[in-house]
Every structure is written in C-alpha cells, then in structure tokens.
Specification:
The protein is 35% helix and 13% strand. The protein is of the alpha/beta class. Bound molecules: 2-acetamido-2-deoxy-beta-D-glucopyranose (NAG) (7 copies). GO terms for molecular function: glycosyltransferase activity.
Length: 451
C-alpha cells in the first residue's frame, strides 16, 4: 500500500498524498490499538469473572460454517450453581480481520485456567484461522429468573411494556410445577390508597395468593411504610385525567404490569375509595371459579349512553355495538392480554372519543361486547349507587356505615354466577371516604370474617 502511494506521489500532488498516506498509517495504527483494546477489555473481564467463581465451566464452542450461515451451539453444560451468569462464544467468518481474531484468541486463552480448559477441545488456531471469535458475557435469564415476579418499578416505556406483556406461550404444557394462581389487585388512585388499613387486614395471611399494583399520579411522592403491603408496589405512572383516554392508558399500564407476573390469573381494578365486601378466601374463590369475566356492559339510549357515540367511528364501531358500563372490572388473563394488545378499537377511541365522551365508561364495555361477549357476564362485581343522580355516585361517610348497610351490599341483589342464581353479586363497593374507615375497621372482622 505504501509502495503504491509512493508511486502515485511521484506523479504529483505530493503533499496531498503524503498527508493521505500518513492518515492511512495512523488509521492502521489506530485500528490495531482499538482491536488490542477490545481484546484486553474482554480478557480483563473474563479474568475478573473467573476469579469470582470457583467452578469454571467455560463453554468455548466450536462453530462450523457452511457458506454464510452461522450456527450457534448452546453451551453443552450449564452449571446449575451459577444460574444467572453465562457466556457464549460467537464466531463469525471474516477473512479480512484475521489479525483481530488472533488478538482476541490470544487474550481469551491468556488465563491459565481457561487455557487448560481450552486444551480439552481442538485448539481454535487449528481451524485454519478463518474464524473470528468473540466471547460475550451477559446475564442469563433462566426459567426460574423468567418466572420470578418482576419488581413493580422498572424503566420500560409504555410501548416496551405493552409489547413485553403481550407475549403468550404457545406451548401449554408447563415445564415446571404449577404455581399457585394469584389475583392481581390493581389500584388506580390519585394519591395514597385511602382505605389502606382495611385492605391490609383483608390481605393479611393470604400472601402468595395476590399481587398488588398501584398507579397513582406521578407527582404523588409520599412514602409507604415498609411494613405495608403497598410498599414498593407503585408502577411507573403517568398523569390521568378522569374520563379521558389517559385513564384507559393507565388501566392498560396496570394490566400490562400485572401480566408480567405469570402467576397472576385474575385482574381486579379498584379505586382508592373501593372496599372489599367479603374476606379474601371468598373473593379469591369467587373470582377463580368464575367461568365468566366481569366487565359491565349495557346499551343505554339517551344522552349519556348512545348520545356519546359518534358516526366517525364507523365502520370500526357501529352504534348498535356501542356499550356503556362501569370501568371497575374483574377479568381473567386471556381478556387482560386482549385488552393490552388491542390495536383495532383503542386507536378509534383515542381519535374520536373526546373528553365529554367518557371513554372510561365506553371503551372496555364496547370492545369486550364486540369481541369477547361470549365469556363476559356484562356485570361488574363492584357495587356503586347512582340512584341519587348527578355525574358522581353516592359517597359514604362515617355514619353511613352500618352492619345493615354492609349486609345489603353483600347480599342485597340477585344475579347469575356459573349458570346459577346467587345473592352474592358484589365483592367490592365504592365510594367510601376515609371518614368511614374507623367503622369499617370495626365491623369488617365481624361481618366480613377477616382473620
Ligand atoms: C461462563 O459461565 C460459567 C457458568 O455457566 C461461569 O462459571 C463462568 O465464570 C463464565 N465465564 C465468564 C467469562 O463469564
Ligand atoms: C477465507 O480465506 C481462505 C483462504 O485463506 C479461503 O479459502 C476462504 O474461502 C475464505 N473464506 C471466506 C468466507 O471468504
Ligand atoms: C414531593 O417531595 C418534595 C420534597 O421531597 C416536596 O417538597 C413536595 O411537596 C412533594 N410533593 C408531593 C406532591 O407530595
Ligand atoms: C370467609 O368468610 C366465609 C363466609 O363469608 C367463611 O365461611 C370463611 O370461613 C371465611 N374464611 C376465613 C379464612 O376466615
Ligand atoms: C370452586 O371450585 C373448586 C374446585 O373446582 C370447588 O371445590 C369449590 O367448591 C368451588 N367453590 C365455589 C365457591 O364454587
Ligand atoms: C352480554 O351482552 C351481549 C350483547 O352485548 C349478549 O350477546 C350476551 O348474551 C350478554 N351476556 C350475558 C351473560 O348476559
Ligand atoms: C499483528 C499481526 O498479526 N499482524 C498481521 C496481520 O495480518 C497480516 C497479513 O495477513 C500480517 O502480515 C501481519 O503480520
């Protein structure tokens, strides 16, 4: 190359070419230095890791190439005592970087323990040094790691979260012992869970049968005591405007976070003013045994029902498909997955269901009624009283809470459950204010049989 340059130099444009040649030399030197640096870095990392593990199981694999296809063999034996850290040798065919491969190989086997291990396999230099070998370290996600409930807080964006949560195994036979199914309680709140002391009593003694997720306003920064079941259960949240699409987004966010835990099989959306009406075991069995999902859906003529539909939604949504219902649902894993991966109906709502349309009261009822009505009960398990009229349901204060009142909520209606008529139609109720907490705590153990 240098000779070539010199010839050209004679032909004129000397200074320019001199500079060019110098640059090439510099470039050459630089690339050598870079290659050496990378090799050194890998070598140092390897040495560091090896030092930390007494048991060395270094799976340098031989790789074969047929034309351009790259075959990666998994490590033959993975040490079960180090389930998290693993490594894979990657080989790529590249004749141009023969030097680079020499550097890398030299450093990879520079550790005596590694070299010893390498001797048990055909030496990599035997392989006519066609291949470049790259050794990569990464955190292994073994099945146990994969199944472990993730932390509620994470750094995924909504887009990343929804995509990840939407993954479903196509193989239905489990390669591990069935874990106990859990109910995910998803609290959609402005600030703190106001009736937390009551919920604490409710959950007590039922660990491993529930998980909790809290979506509160991002500006809410009160700390939850470590002893609380709500401690560390806040998910990455965004601002929510009641009645707007941000509300649906928050519900989808809660569902997606809860779906990341494979043991969550039922999903219950509750607000900060919701209370449980039965003890945990009753609610758990009711939800788990149900053959239907609980998304309230009904067709309501008039301004606050069909009046909120806009013909712009055609052809995706027709007026006859428009439904209304409470946003507080109790659903199963299948429906939860369908909701977070809906890319057909939610965009229509986002586009045409403006604030006065109250999408939180229409999106799920309409979506579920169009696509999943077969397995939906069309009712919600959350009791509420709209009888006093107005845009908000009745709120309950201290003196409203009596044993008679609570029993009316518990047994005061009639409905269908798994094909039979029952008088247990509501498992939760709203809207209770913190003023009602004292009396709720007093009555709950007695009538609701909290233990
Ligand atoms: C490779 O993985 C084994 C366990 O599979 C581990 O003991 C070893 O330290 C790892 N080596 C490196 C360089 O990470
Ligand atoms: C690499 O170079 C060798 C000769 O050194 C040649 O036989 C082989 O075909 C080349 N491989 C590729 C992928 O170019
Ligand atoms: C959040 O914390 C800061 C101080 O750490 C405080 O000044 C602020 O008022 C808090 N905000 C809320 C909403 O509690
Ligand atoms: C829960 O309440 C039911 C009655 O509603 C009762 O039969 C059951 O024993 C209670 N369970 C516990 C664990 O207290
Ligand atoms: C729920 O199902 C289990 C088993 O199928 C049964 O033993 C139990 O009695 C059922 N509970 C209710 C409340 O139906
Ligand atoms: C729920 O409503 C749909 C219509 O939207 C209806 O087809 C279905 O039969 C209803 N299911 C029940 C259990 O009432
Ligand atoms: C450092 C090193 O090994 N350099 C070699 C790179 O490859 C060329 C030709 O393939 C050799 O001439 C160098 O000695």
């Amino acid at each position: 190359m240098k000779n070539n340059n010199k010839e050209q130099q004679g032909k004129g444009a000397a200074s320019y070419l001199k500079l060019f040649s110098a640059q090439l030399d510099l470039l050459n030197l630089f690339s050598h230095a870079l290659v050496f640096g990378i090799g050194l870095l890998i070598g140092v990392t390897l040495t560091f890791f090896v030092k930390n593990f007494s048991l060395i199981n270094f799976p340098i694999q031989k790789f074969s190439f047929s034309s351009n296809s790259l075959m990666i063999k998994p490590p033959t034996s993975l040490s079960p005592s180090h389930p998290i850290i693993s490594n894979i040798s990657l080989l790529t065919s590249n004749n141009q970087t023969k030097n680079e491969s020499q550097y890398l190989e030299g450093l990879v086997v520079s550790d005596s323990r590694l070299r010893h291990h390498d001797k048990t396999k055909p030496s990599s230099s035997d392989s006519s040094s066609i291949n470049r070998k790259r050794v990569m370290n990464f955190n292994r996600v073994g099945l146990r790691e994969f199944l472990k409930p993730p932390m509620a807080m994470h750094d995924m964006s909504d887009e990343e979260l929804l995509w990840r949560a939407s993954m479903v195994p196509m193989v239905h036979k489990l390669p591990f012992k069935q874990t106990t199914a859990k109910v995910a309680f998803m609290f959609l709140t402005k600030g703190p869970v106001l009736l937390a002391p009551l919920w604490e009593r409710f959950f007590k003694g039922n660990e491993r049968l529930y998980s909790i997720y809290v979506h509160s306003n991002p500006s809410f920064n009160e700390t939850v005591p470590e002893s609380s079941v709500f401690h560390g259960r806040n998910i990455p949240s965004q601002e929510v405007r009641w009645g707007e699409n941000s509300m649906i987004e928050a519900e989808r966010r809660l569902l997606a976070n809860a779906l990341l835990d494979f043991s969550n099989q039922r999903f219950v959306l509750v607000s900060e003013s919701c209370i449980p009406l039965f003890n945990f075991s009753t609610i758990y069995t009711y939800l788990m045994n149900s053959t239907k999902t609980f998304v309230e859906a009904y067709d309501l003529p008039g301004e606050v029902g069909r009046g909120r539909y806009t013909p712009h939604m055609r052809p995706h949504i027709r007026l006859s498909q428009w439904r209304k219902g409470s946003q507080w649902f109790q659903i199963d894993r299948y429906l939860a997955l369908q909701i977070i991966s809906d890319h057909q109906y939610f965009p229509v709502f986002k586009k045409y269901c403006n604030p006065s349309c109250s999408c939180d009261e229409h999106y799920l009822p309409t979506f579920v009624s169009i696509k999943f009505w077969k397995r939906n009960s069309n009712r919600t398990l959350t009791w509420v009283d709209w009888s006093r009229g107005g845009p908000h349901p009745s709120r309950y204060f201290r003196t409203d809470v009596t044993i008679e009142f609570l029993n009316k909520l518990r047994y005061g209606s009639s409905c269908e459950y798994n094909g039979r008529t029952t008088n247990i139609c509501h498992l939760f109720a709203r809207k209770f204010t913190p003023h009602a907490l004292d009396r709720l705590l007093r009555f709950a153990p007695k009538i609701m049989q909290f233990n």
